[in-house]
């Protein structure tokens, strides 16, 4: 019997994690489940999985949560402090699957407990960078990457030593607009952006995937998880999403991880690590797929990856500023306030206008994040 808490349980990664647990109910004790609001959905999950605690980030949703959990004995709580408390309860594994920098505080609380954290919340690592990796080191925590590319790299690194790595290649699907012209991109709608050809994901990461910002954030994420040097990290577009990433060693042996494009594969790899578990999916049929293709990214139509590379090269507060500006821009795009191609422009403008000293603590990161959001918000007002 193993215990688990899921931060962001009502989201795409959270639900897929619970789907795996549902199939192995006898092996898992669910401690805490959290959401931003969605009180009814969270309560239904907490009841089904017999969780001890359910937490909503938004305090105005606590009444509804309490009502939905009445008579169950499941504790209910709300607010950021409650999310952090939930994350710091002792469990065998915490799945950090809140979207955006909003997940940073709770993810750090799980790390500070020194536990095993399955990290999906890439924005938290991008924003906090060394502040998070230093905390992992200091508290003896274990980070297991949920993101499919990083999970693939993590698996490929079992085949050699990190000192012997010549190159790490992150694969990118290219998103729903891979073959679109600049003119088409200018007219892209939120509905088109969230319809990803290979993966079924939350709205924010789907838009990031369409702008290629997701791959840029993943480049920064990979730099922190696998410190081989930026010159050894590259991105390649692979539209079939079958090869999830690759590690080339100095003898030119390249190890790749392949699998169905279903997040339950990397999630299961974290849940069972260092063992393996069954995942109820059709196995990969390479003969049916027939062809795997690879092409260099087009940074002219999709400038987000170069913005991310420049931000991590600059270091300090730049990645946190980039991430915050992107979150504001994506929300504005989803809300119909700005066009699709304005997203990377807003990120670049925020990075040009706002500089801050390198964050040393979690509080510093959160300060940079909120200041960068305010600056990006001003760009919206003047639009
Ligand atoms: P989602 O939007 O489907 O779910 C997000 C979850 O976070 C929900 O439970 C929501 O209630 C919660 N949440 C949102 N804002 C919050 C706030 N302010 N406070 C507390 N909780 C809040 O997102 P997702 O697609 O599941 O992605 C989650 C994370 O995993 C993201 O960082 C994403 O980049 C990463 N990721 C997702 C996938 C995928 O396939 N969905 C793949 C790789 C990585
Ligand atoms: Mg990914």
UniProtKB/TrEMBL annotation:
<dbReference type="Pfam" id="PF13288">
    <property type="entry name" value="DXPR_C"/>
</dbReference>
<feature type="binding site">
    <location>
        <position position="11"/>
    </location>
    <ligand>
        <name>NADPH</name>
    </ligand>
</feature>
<feature type="binding site">
    <location>
        <position position="147"/>
    </location>
    <ligand>
        <name>Mn(2+)</name>
    </ligand>
</feature>
<keyword id="KW-0464">Manganese</keyword>
<dbReference type="Pfam" id="PF08436">
    <property type="entry name" value="DXP_redisom_C"/>
</dbReference>
<keyword id="KW-0560">Oxidoreductase</keyword>
<feature type="binding site">
    <location>
        <position position="196"/>
    </location>
    <ligand>
        <name>1-deoxy-D-xylulose 5-phosphate</name>
    </ligand>
</feature>
<comment type="pathway">
    <text>Isoprenoid biosynthesis; isopentenyl diphosphate biosynthesis via DXP pathway; isopentenyl diphosphate from 1-deoxy-D-xylulose 5-phosphate: step 1/6.</text>
</comment>
<feature type="binding site">
    <location>
        <position position="149"/>
    </location>
    <ligand>
        <name>Mn(2+)</name>
    </ligand>
</feature>
<dbReference type="InterPro" id="IPR026877">
    <property type="entry name" value="DXPR_C"/>
</dbReference>
<keyword id="KW-0479">Metal-binding</keyword>
<feature type="binding site">
    <location>
        <position position="13"/>
    </location>
    <ligand>
        <name>NADPH</name>
    </ligand>
</feature>
<dbReference type="GO" id="GO:0030604">
    <property type="term" value="F:1-deoxy-D-xylulose-5-phosphate reductoisomerase activity"/>
</dbReference>
<keyword id="KW-0521">NADP</keyword>
<feature type="binding site">
    <location>
        <position position="202"/>
    </location>
    <ligand>
        <name>NADPH</name>
    </ligand>
</feature>
<protein>
    <recommendedName>
        <fullName>1-deoxy-D-xylulose 5-phosphate reductoisomerase</fullName>
        <ecNumber>1.1.1.267</ecNumber>
    </recommendedName>
</protein>
<feature type="binding site">
    <location>
        <position position="209"/>
    </location>
    <ligand>
        <name>1-deoxy-D-xylulose 5-phosphate</name>
    </ligand>
</feature>
<feature type="domain" description="1-deoxy-D-xylulose 5-phosphate reductoisomerase C-terminal">
    <location>
        <begin position="143"/>
        <end position="226"/>
    </location>
</feature>
<feature type="binding site">
    <location>
        <position position="214"/>
    </location>
    <ligand>
        <name>1-deoxy-D-xylulose 5-phosphate</name>
    </ligand>
</feature>
<dbReference type="InterPro" id="IPR003821">
    <property type="entry name" value="DXP_reductoisomerase"/>
</dbReference>
<comment type="similarity">
    <text>Belongs to the DXR family.</text>
</comment>
<feature type="domain" description="DXP reductoisomerase C-terminal">
    <location>
        <begin position="258"/>
        <end position="374"/>
    </location>
</feature>
<dbReference type="InterPro" id="IPR013512">
    <property type="entry name" value="DXP_reductoisomerase_N"/>
</dbReference>
<feature type="binding site">
    <location>
        <position position="173"/>
    </location>
    <ligand>
        <name>1-deoxy-D-xylulose 5-phosphate</name>
    </ligand>
</feature>
<feature type="binding site">
    <location>
        <position position="121"/>
    </location>
    <ligand>
        <name>NADPH</name>
    </ligand>
</feature>
<dbReference type="InterPro" id="IPR036169">
    <property type="entry name" value="DXPR_C_sf"/>
</dbReference>
<feature type="binding site">
    <location>
        <position position="12"/>
    </location>
    <ligand>
        <name>NADPH</name>
    </ligand>
</feature>
<keyword id="KW-0460">Magnesium</keyword>
<dbReference type="InterPro" id="IPR013644">
    <property type="entry name" value="DXP_reductoisomerase_C"/>
</dbReference>
<feature type="domain" description="1-deoxy-D-xylulose 5-phosphate reductoisomerase N-terminal">
    <location>
        <begin position="4"/>
        <end position="129"/>
    </location>
</feature>
<comment type="function">
    <text>Catalyzes the NADPH-dependent rearrangement and reduction of 1-deoxy-D-xylulose-5-phosphate (DXP) to 2-C-methyl-D-erythritol 4-phosphate (MEP).</text>
</comment>
<feature type="binding site">
    <location>
        <position position="215"/>
    </location>
    <ligand>
        <name>1-deoxy-D-xylulose 5-phosphate</name>
    </ligand>
</feature>
<dbReference type="Pfam" id="PF02670">
    <property type="entry name" value="DXP_reductoisom"/>
</dbReference>
<feature type="binding site">
    <location>
        <position position="10"/>
    </location>
    <ligand>
        <name>NADPH</name>
    </ligand>
</feature>
<keyword id="KW-0414">Isoprene biosynthesis</keyword>
<feature type="binding site">
    <location>
        <position position="122"/>
    </location>
    <ligand>
        <name>1-deoxy-D-xylulose 5-phosphate</name>
    </ligand>
</feature>
<feature type="binding site">
    <location>
        <position position="148"/>
    </location>
    <ligand>
        <name>1-deoxy-D-xylulose 5-phosphate</name>
    </ligand>
</feature>
<feature type="binding site">
    <location>
        <position position="149"/>
    </location>
    <ligand>
        <name>1-deoxy-D-xylulose 5-phosphate</name>
    </ligand>
</feature>
<feature type="binding site">
    <location>
        <position position="218"/>
    </location>
    <ligand>
        <name>Mn(2+)</name>
    </ligand>
</feature>
<feature type="binding site">
    <location>
        <position position="218"/>
    </location>
    <ligand>
        <name>1-deoxy-D-xylulose 5-phosphate</name>
    </ligand>
</feature>
<feature type="binding site">
    <location>
        <position position="123"/>
    </location>
    <ligand>
        <name>NADPH</name>
    </ligand>
</feature>
<dbReference type="InterPro" id="IPR036291">
    <property type="entry name" value="NAD(P)-bd_dom_sf"/>
</dbReference>
